[in-house]
Fold this protein.
Amino acid sequence: MRIMTNKRRFLHIITAAIVCFLLTACEEKEERRISPLGITEEEPMDNLAYDLAQIQEAGELIAATLSGPDTYYEYRGRGFGLQFEMAESFANSIGAKLRMETVRDTADLFRRLKNGEIDLIALDIPESRPLDPALQFSGAWHSAASQADTLKSGWVIRKDATYLAAALDGWYKPETRAFLLERERKRFSLGGGVKRHVRAPFQNRAKGIISPYDASFVRHSQAIGWDWRLMAAQCYQESGFDPQAVSWAGARGLMQIMPETAAHLGLPAGQMHQPEQNIAAAARYIRELERKFSDIPGRAERICFVLAAYNGGAGHVRDAMALARKHGKNAKTWADVAPFILRLSQPQYYNDPVVRYGYLRGEETHGYVTAILERWQRYRGAVHGGTAGTQPAPARRNSRNGFKSKVLSAEELEEKYKAEGNNTESND
C-alpha cells in the first residue's frame, strides 16, 4: 500500500513538472512573439512585419515616388527633389541609407508597398484618398496654406509597420519641409549656377595661350584622343577656369566633378580643387563615357553624346536616344537626339515607358553641349597646333523640330546669375 502511494506521488510530481515545463515554454514563445524585434527562430519571417528594426539591421530604407522636378530626379549621379530630400533626411535619422526608386503611377506605388517591395511611399498622397486596409498614412503631413485641412496629404506605409510609423511621426515636423524647401529655393535662386570667379576666355590670344592650365589639357587630352582645346572649352563652360568653383549640386573644381564621381575615379576629396588632379580625373571620366557610347559611329557625333552625358548623366542620354528611336528618328545622330534631351523636362516624355531615368533639366544639358562646341570652334580658330582630336561638328543655336535654346557664354551666365540673385533678394 505504501509502495502504491509512493508511485502515485512520484507520478504526480512528474506530471506537475511536465505541465510546468510546457507552460513556461508557451510563455517564452508568447514573449518572443510580441518582442519589438519581431524575428524569432520559432516564428517564420513570412508572418512578421518588415518594420523599423529590420530596416535598421539591413541599413537601407527603400522609398518610392514619381519622377519630377519637385519629387525626385538625378543630376550628375546624385538625387535631388523635395521628396528625395525629405526621405533622405528621415533615413539618416534612423541610421540607414536611402534607396529611392521611381514608378510610372500611384497605382504602382500602392501595389509595390502592399507587396513589401518598398518601405514607404514618399509622395504627397491626399488624405481623402481611400487606402487599402493594409496601408496607413504616416509622416510628412502637408497642407498648403491656401487649402482646407480636408485636403491634407502625407506619406503612406504598411499598417503592420508600427515602429516605422512611430519613427516617422516623431521625425517629421512642418519645419522639416520648410527648411528643405528653402534649401531647394536657394539652390535655384541663381539659376542653378556655379559659385565661381570667371576668368577671361583667353589668357593671351596673341601668344595662343588659352588658360594657365593649357599644359594639363594637352597632357591629359592626348591620353584620351581629344583635342586639348575641346577640354579647355569644356572647362571654361564648367568653371570659367576657376579651380575653386563649386556648383549648386556640389560639383567642384575646374572640371566640376561630383564628390561621388571623384570617389569612383580615385580622386581624393582633398584634391578636388587641385587643377592637375581635377583635370586628370575628368579625362578618366571622359574615357569611361567614350566607352559607354562606343556604339555611336564617328568621333564628332560621339563627342556630343559624351558631353551631354558628362553634364546630365549617361542614363538620361540613353533615354533621349530611346525616345528618338520610338519617334522614328536616328538615335545615333545628335541632331535627332538633341530635341528629346529638351523634351525630358516634360511629363509626357519623362513618364514614357521607354524612359528609365525620368526627369532631366534638359535645357541645361542641351545648352551645355552647344556652348562648348561653339567655344571649341573659336579656340580652334585662334590657337593652332597640339590637337589630337577631330574637327568639331557645326554648332546650331536653334535645334530641329522647333526647339530653340539660347546659348550663353560663361560671362553671360555669370551676369544672368547675378541679376537673378538680385531680383530674388528684392522680391524677398
